[in-house]
Design brief:
single chain; 514 residues; Luciferase, domain 3; alpha/beta; GMP Synthetase, Chain A, domain 3; 9-stranded mixed β-sheet; Rossmann fold; 5-stranded parallel β-sheet
Amino acid sequence: MTNNLGLFLTKRAHLSPDLEGFVGTGSGLRLSFSELNRRSNRTANMLTGLGVKKGDRVALLLMNDIEFVESFFAIAKLGGVVVPLNWRLVGDELAFILDDSGASTLIFGHEFAELSADLQARTRECRGIKNWLVAGDVAPAAGVSSYKALCEAASDEEPRTGAADADELYIMYTSGTTGLPKGAVHTHDSAMWACITINATADTHYGDRYLVALPLFHVGALTPMVANVYGGATSIVMYQFDPVRAWEIVEEERLSSMLAVPAMLNFMLQAGGHDKVDHSRLRWVMSGAAPVPVTLIEAYAELGIEIHQVYGLTETCGPACLISPEDAIRKAGSTGKPFFHTEVRVIDDSGAELPAGEMGEVIISGRHLMKGYWNRPDATAEALRDGWLHSGDLASMDGDGFVYIQDRKKDMIISGGENVYPAEIENVILSHPEVRDVAVVGLPSEKWGESPLAVVVAGAEGLAAESVIEHCKGRLARFKLPRTVEFVDEIPRNPTGKILKRVLRERFPGPAPE
């Protein structure tokens, strides 16, 4: 039997037609799996009518709502390749991704009409886009078609399946250490195995009600949403995260589980409201993207809510390691053991597996690994070797098989659950005419986990921190902007010229200003 992710929805609609499959907290829309499937079929047939075929890339610039969910399964069914776009990015960043992916269709929300107009005007980077579709009850601008009107006019019959197995399903872009984003390519097979390993490891059940609170352009939201269809759980999709509203939804929708990064969980505690709602049905919360403080685990435990710490990557379609709440206290600082259909090792620079307690690089194996990086054979060859993904993360593993992430080999900063690579910020700051040298490191932040600090060598007298930050605005997404700037006479480097970021972290320990 061939495997097509879009047919997951078809099968679930057949098995559980009346089970609630989608709830949109922004629109209030509620759909059974059969209703969701019919909508997805209309979208697939509409796109086919526009000429979208197997292998064509369809970019989604959409908030968390029905259009994203139905489009994802529709594109999967007809054999297209989804390119989820991070709506926090600015025009320059999105234009690069659209050009690099070779997208021929862009579906965007009415919230991004101004940004879309900017992209349309970029006739070089966006020259390949033939179909511009706006979602929402708005009058389309010139050169743009109404997504809603086209879908309503399309058939809800099952479309012809256009891809399966090792065919590409989506390209999810992550920030690159060179400053250019890399597109991790996942196939129908790798996405299916991510669902299988999650359902075999995590505390998931048929009929669960799961809050999708992260943006769907994140693997931490997209993979659980697909796994919910696979396992027969309801996806309550939060339009945009709000900590106060999150507690209300816990009670209103009788939530069973959810995924939230530590910063989100912190915001929920600080916002209050948990003492005013019934959260007794919320069995557990999966949390990752950054280490989960034991104090946070204990605070939620006092509320009767288990925190299951997870370690994963875009390149693994999500799963790598998972820990139970009882082990999280007993094994403080650990991200747990590998998922069921996943292997994890800790190796030295020669590739030899290290004994318990020694720090080395984390490598991961499983059928849910990415196919590679889009248009980046060099980066693919570096990351994927002999069936193992070399994560770039440094960790140790104890004698019981629990993994402890120690550091990030590639100096990635995780701010509010978003991956931020210093090189990307450094490249932008170096384009400032009055900056001679720069290094970016992460400062500990109580609010965001980490925030970027720019350490700058000025090339002209009187250069102000405000000037550096202002230069970054419009060139970088807001979450990538330096929180603060420090000036030094020289950036410390080793004999080969590599920046000694450890020295900078010691000199500027933080915390970041909030």
